[in-house]
Amino acid sequence: MPYAKIIGSGGYLPPRVVSNDQLAADLATRQIETSDTWIVERTGIRQRHIADEGVMSSHLATEAARLALEDAGVTAADIDLIIVATSTPDFVFPSTACLVQANLGAKGGAAFDVQAVCSGFVYALTTADAFIQAGRAKTALVIGAEVFSGILDWNDRGTCVLFGDGAGAVVIQASAEPGIIGAQLNADGSQTKILCAAGNVSRGKVTGDPFLRMDGQAVFKLAVNCLAKSAHEVCEQAGIALTDVDWLVPHQANIRIINFLGRKLHIPEEKVVVTVDSHANTSAASVPLAFDVARRDGRIKTGDTVMMQGVGGGFTWGSVLVKM
Ligand code: ACO
C-alpha cells in the first residue's frame, strides 16, 4: 500500500490586515469596548487578515492551491482529487472544491468539501490519505479555506476578536517512502452547543442564528484535553514516541490553548509552530497556513516528523502524523 507524501504547500491571506487597535477603534464606534491588551493577554492574537466584501473561500483556496502546486512542481492536470475543508463555503452548492477545480482548470477526478470546522483540515488530509492508500487517487490537493469574517457577529466582542480569513493547501502524492504515518479523528456530537453557527437557508429565508456562538471556557477545556489524548493515541498508532515529534502544528485558536497543550505533552515551545498572533483563528485554514509558514521559513525540513492537530465545532478533533 503506498504512503501519501506531502510534496508541496501554499498559504494565502487576504491583503487587508486589521490590528487589535484598529478593531477596538471600530467596535468603539458602536459602544463596544475591547482593547489590544485584553485580546493579547487572553488569546495571543495581535492582528487578523479580513477578506474584502465579495471575496469568498474559493478565491482564497485557489490562490493557496496555485502556490502549493508550484511548490510541488506539479500542474492542475496532475491532480485527481481535490478536498476543501471549509465551514464557510461560497454557496450551499456546488462545493467549494468544484469551484477551485474550475478556477485551476483541473479536469477529472473527485472534488468535494469536508465540514469539520476547525478540525476540517486534519479530517480532509486523513480522507485524502485514505484515497491514496486505497489506490483511488495519486495526487491530491487538500485545502483549508475560510472567510469566517462573514459569519461573525461584529457586535459580540467575545467572538469577533478571535477570527480571521485565509487559506492553506498541501499537495500529497502516492509514494513508496513514508509520508503520512498516522491519523486519528474523533467527534462528540453531544457537544454541538458550545460552538456553533446554528442557522440555515430554507424556503428562501435564513432561519435560526446565522452567526457563530461559543462558550469559550467550555471550548478551552475540551480542546486541551482532547488534543492531548489524541496526540498520545496517534503516536501509539504510528509506533513512535512523542519525543520523536520534531514539530507540533496545532490548530491556531488561542495561544493559551497552545501553551497548555505543549506543557501537557512536554513538547518544548521551540518545537511548536505558532501563527495565531498574526493570523488569528482561521478555522480549517489555520493548520495548513501554519504548516506552510514553517516549511517556507526552513523550520520544517525533509526527514522531520510533524504532528498536525485540529479541534473545533462538532465537537471534532484529531491528529495527523507526517514524515516529511
Ligand atoms: N474585550 C474585552 N472584554 C471582553 C472581551 C473582549 N473582546 N470578550 C469578553 N470580554 C469580557 C467578558 O464580557 C467578561 O466580562 P465580565 O467579567 O464583566 O462579565 C470578561 O471579559 C471575561 O469573559 P470570559 O468569556 O469569561 O473570558 P475568558 O477569560 O474565558 O476568555 C476566551 C474568553 C478568550 C474566548 C477564552 O474563553 C478562550 O480562550 N476560550 C477558548 C475558545 C477559543 O479560543 N475559541 C476559538 C474558536 S474555537 C476553536 O477554534 C477550537
UniProtKB/TrEMBL annotation:
Principal subcellular localisation of the protein: cytoplasm
Domain Beta-ketoacyl-[acyl-carrier-protein] synthase III N-terminal residue range list: 112-189
Pfam name, any one: ACP_syn_III_C
Catalytic activity: malonyl-[ACP] + acetyl-CoA + H(+) = 3-oxobutanoyl-[ACP] + CO2 + CoA
Keywords, ordered alphabetically: Acyltransferase, Cytoplasm, Fatty acid biosynthesis, Fatty acid metabolism, Lipid biosynthesis, Lipid metabolism, Multifunctional enzyme, Transferase
UniProt subcellular location: Cytoplasm
GO BP, one annotated term: fatty acid biosynthetic process
Recorded coiled-coil stretches: none
Active-site residue numbers: C118, H251, N281
Listed InterPro entries: ACP_syn_III_C, ACP_syn_III_N, FabH, Thiolase-like
Keyword Chloroplast in record: no
Physiological role: Catalyzes the condensation reaction of fatty acid synthesis by the addition to an acyl acceptor of two carbons from malonyl-ACP. Catalyzes the first condensation reaction which initiates fatty acid synthesis and may therefore play a role in governing the total rate of fatty acid production. Possesses both acetoacetyl-ACP synthase and acetyl transacylase activities. Its substrate specificity determines the biosynthesis of branched-chain and/or straight-chain of fatty acids.
HAMAP family: FabH (MF_01815)
Subunit and interaction comment: Homodimer.
Name of the protein this chain belongs to: Beta-ketoacyl-[acyl-carrier-protein] synthase III
Organism classification: Bacteria, Pseudomonadati, Pseudomonadota, Betaproteobacteria, Burkholderiales
Gene that this polypeptide is encoded by: fabH
